[in-house]
Each structure stands twice: as structure tokens, then as C-alpha cells.
Design a protein that fits this description.
Blueprint: H1 20-48, E1 60-62, H2 70-90, H3 93-114, H4 117-122, H5 141-146, H6 162-165, H7 169-180, H8 186-197, H9 200-212, H10 214-220, H11 230-233, H12 237-257, H13 261-276, H14 285-295, H15 303-319, H16 324-337, H17 345-378, H18 387-408, H19 415-418, H20 420-423, H21 436-453, E2 454-456
Helix pairs in contact: 1-17, 2-3, 2-21, 3-9, 8-12, 9-10, 9-12, 12-13, 12-14, 13-15, 14-18, 17-18, 17-21
Length: about 450
């Protein structure tokens, strides 16, 4: 077992083989939740039209189809199921990180191309609600930022499209800057989102290794490739947001477990600052950041550097004239002016969780079931000492953030993409499962079915 921190070794955990019946019951209950969301949602949408989604609980429409990405997706799925666990166990650590990123790239690209190049990649971020619609309005970036608030509400003159209004301007500026360096248009935007978004898998592995040990990170590695979440990582901008948040947490994990916290702490703070200027809802990533600090061996040393890094992005945006709090206040009003004011909270507060089941897959459900039993089995004293309880605490923090977002009422529908930054951190729970190949097959099968049967909104 390699050393995972500069202070102590984490003992390699034994994954308990029992509990197959309980795992099956958890997966069955999750499947029933999805079925209920689909049946009740279809009834509500057909009768009242208030859900504003085409295939409840997902944004999309029923459209069985094949595409140029189908053969590649099947090949990647077979390769990961057959060879993923063995490769993860034997490959040296750094090559393993590259292999996971390469696998995630191949999987996400192939799923996106099931819908074809134009519909699956080049056209995704050019629709009327998306960021590329307003690139020309950012010719003078400081002036546009000073005036950003005036176009958030639906009744405002030249109001922003839904996704532009619904996010801080850092989200749109991502694509403005791509355009400025010669990578304009939907094809480059889609390629950027897939390439950057899939690096989140590497960030998750780095974090798990630092905080819960290499053995659990290796067990989790294959599950970060064929996750159904890839359906929405390629190509929604939320895949990019998820990667930024994931690397912020990874750098923070390095800072709280390493000897030189200055650069990693500052880098973590810088990315956390960028994260909250990409999406208002990602302020909740602070819950998982708190768990990382709690699990760190040097919890306080990186904090001054992280705080300094965090201030950089807000100071820059404030200097350019953008007021985050005022924009968020206006966004809440805009949210209830649109679909958010029509979609029923009583349905989405639980149907959102059905969306999450489809994003993370049956293996994650079973892993979370095992993780939920771990604190009781291990006892309070082991929570911050033993690898499995430490992993459970990390995963549990992401689940808590997701539940807070759910209860807030500001996440009614579209959570298959909006919650990607939290859902990715649930996947390491799969490290607790014995017999990984069967579970990997289930993950890949769900993703393939979703992508081939439903034309998703992203």
C-alpha cells in the first residue's frame, strides 16, 4: 500500500462480500422510484402541462435511435466491464489516471455521437436557451458585466436567454473567451465541454486516494468511466462546471494532506471562486469542501492561502461592475417568472431524486446503501481514521449538498445536468461493492439505454 499522505498510512480496507440481498432491495426501490416518477409525471404533464419536460422525469423525448457513436459506445462498455477492474488493480497510479480520463473521453464522446455530430455535439450549445446565442453582446466585456443585471428578468429589454440569465457571467464568459482565441462556434464549445468535463473523473480519484487511500480509489476507478452521468457531461456546460468544482476539491485535498499547502491551497481557493461565478447553486460545494477539511491531516494550514485564492475572482468581477448578490436576487424572480414558477414542487422534490438515480446508476445506489450502514458498523471512533468511513463521509457530504439543493425549490427539473457536480462525488461509493463486473455492466447498460431510447435535452 502506497503512502497517501505525509503523516500517516491508511490501511487497505476489506470490502465485505455480504449484503447482496440488501443491495438488490435498494436497487429495486430506486427502480420503483424512477417508475413512479415516469408514470405520475406523464399523467401530470399530459393532463396539466405543468412539468415542462418531454419525458418525465428527464428533459427529453422518447426517440429510439442509433447513431455513429453506437459501435464505439458498445466497444467501450465491453472493454471497461471486461478489463476495467484488472487494469485498475495493476496499472501504476499515474498511468491509471490517464487511462481513466481516456476511458471517460471515449465513453462520453461515443454517447454524444449516438445523436450524430450536429445534434449531439455541434448544435447542443447553440439553441435559443444557450450561451452561444449572446457571444456578440460581449464585445465590450466590462460594459456588458456592468449591465448584466438589467437583462435578467423576463420583462427586461433584450433579456438574456434562460441559461445565461440563470448563471453568473463566468459561465457565458467561458465561451466568449473560447471565441476570442479562435475556437468559436458550437463544435469547439462542445469539444471543450467534453474534454474538460471528463477530467472530473481524475480529480475525484486524486481526492479519494488522498483522503481514503489508494485501494478504495482503485476500486472506484472503473466506475468513473461508464457512468450514465456521461450522457449529460457531453455536451452540457454543467460538465465543465463539474470539472472546475472537482479540481477545486482535489487541490484542497492535496493541500490538507501535503507538506506544501501554499500553492495547492491557493489554487483550490481560486477554483472555488471561479466555481461560484459559473453557477449560483455551486455555492453548496462548500458542504463537500468542509468534509475535505475535516478529513485532512493539516486542516488549518492551507486556509489562509485558500481564502486568498478565493477572493481573486469575486474581486475581479466586482471591479468590472458585476454584483453577484444582486444578480442572484433577480435570478430568483426570473426563475419564478418562467418554468420554475409553474413546475410543482410536490412532484419535483422527489422526482429530482429519480433523475439522480438515472444519472448515477444502480451500482451507486447499492454502494450508497452499503455506505449508509458503514458508520453504524464501524463506530464513531473509526469515522476519521479508517478508509471506508472516510470515503463514506466524503460521499455523504455530496449527498447532503444534493438534498439541500433539492429542498431549496430552486432545482425543479433539469437536475440530470444541474446536479452533475454533486452526482459525480456519489460514484466512489461503488468502491464498496464486491463483484464489480456485474455492477459495471449495469451502469453501462443503463447509460446505453438512456442514450439510445431518449433524445435528451443535453
Amino acid at each position: 500500500m502506497k503512502r497517501t499522505s505525509d503523516r500517516t498510512d491508511l490501511r487497505a480496507p476489506a470490502v465485505r462480500p455480504g449484503g447482496a440481498k440488501a443491495d438488490a432491495c435498494a436497487v429495486a426501490a430506486a427502480a420503483l422510484l424512477v417508475l413512479a416518477a415516469a408514470l405520475i409525471g406523464t399523467h401530470l404533464q399530459n393532463r396539466y402541462g405543468t412539468l415542462r419536460v418531454g419525458w418525465p422525469p428527464l428533459v427529453g423525448q422518447w426517440m429510439p435511435h442509433l447513431g455513429p457513436g453506437t459501435p464505439a459506445a458498445l466497444a467501450v462498455a465491453v472493454a471497461v466491464v471486461a478489463y476495467g477492474p484488472g487494469v485498475a488493480a495493476r496499472l501504476p497510479w499515474r498511468p491509471l489516471l490517464l487511462a481513466v480520463w481516456g476511458g471517460a473521453l471515449a465513453w462520453t464522446w461515443s454517447l454524444a455521437l449516438v445523436d450524430g455530430w450536429q445534434r449531439g455535439v455541434a448544435g447542443r450549445l447553440t439553441t435559443r436557451h444557450e450561451y452561444l446565442q449572446v457571444i456578440d453582446r460581449f464585445q465590450d466585456i466590462p460594459a456588458t458585466l456592468r449591465d448584466f443585471h438589467a437583462h435578467i428578468l423576463i420583462g427586461a429589454p433584450e433579456n438574456w436567454p434562460a441559461h445565461v440569465a440563470g448563471h453568473p457571467p463566468g459561465a457565458t464568459l467561458t465561451f466568449v473567451l473560447l471565441d476570442r482565441i479562435g475556437l468559436g462556434g458550437g463544435a469547439w464549445a462542445g469539444a471543450f465541454v467534453v474534454t474538460a468535463g471528463t477530467t472530473a473523473a481524475v480529480a475525484v480519484l486524486v481526492t479519494v486516494r488522498r483522503l481514503a487511500g489508494e485501494d478504495l480509489a482503485r476500486r472506484a476507478a472503473p466506475f468513473l468511466v461508464p457512468a450514465p452521468a456521461a450522457v449529460w457531461t457531453g455536451t452540457s456546460a454543467d460538465g465543465w462546471f463539474a470539472a472546475v468544482a472537482a479540481w477545486a476539491l482535489a487541490l484542497l485535498a492535496l493541500a490538507v494532506t501535503g507538506r506544501r499547502p501554499a500553492w495547492t491551497g491557493f489554487g483550490a481557493g481560486l477554483l472555488f471562486g471561479l466555481t461560484v461565478y459559473l453557477s449560483y447553486g455551486l455555492t453548496l460545494i462548500a458542504v463537500t469542501a468542509a468534509a475535505v477539511l475535516l478529513l485532512g491531516f493539516r486542516r488549518l494550514r492551507p486556509l489562509p492561502y485558500a481564502a486568498a485564492g478565493f477572493l481573486v475572482v469575486p474581486v475581479v468581477f466586482a471591479a468590472l461592475g458585476f454584483d453577484w448578490w444582486e444578480a442572484y436576487r433577480l435570478l430568483v424572480t426570473r426563475y419564478y417568472q418562467g418554468a420554475g414558477g409553474v413546475r410543482p414542487y410536490g412532484y419535483w422534490v422527489w422526482a429530482n431524486l429519480a433523475c439522480t438515480v438515472l444519472v448515477v446508476g444502480p451500482a451507486t445506489v447499492a454502494g450508497l446503501r452499503r455506505g449508509g450502514a458503514e458508520p453504524v458498523r464501524s463506530g464513531r471512533a473509526a469515522l476519521l481514521r479508517d478508509p471506508v468511513p472516510r470515503l463514506v463521509l466524503l460521499v455523504g457530504s455530496a449527498l447532503l449538498a444534493l438534498l439541500v439543493a433539492d429542498l431549496s425549490g430552486m432545482s425543479k427539473a433539469e437536475t440530470e445536468r444541474i446536479w452533475l457536480p454533486f452526482a459525480l462525488w456519489l460514484l466512489p461509493a461503488c468502491a464498496l461493492l464486491p463483484g464489480p463486473r456485474g455492477w459495471l455492466a449495469g451502469q453501462a447498460a443503463l447509460a446505453l439505454l438512456l442514450n439510445h431510447l431518449v433524445l435528451t435535452g443535453w
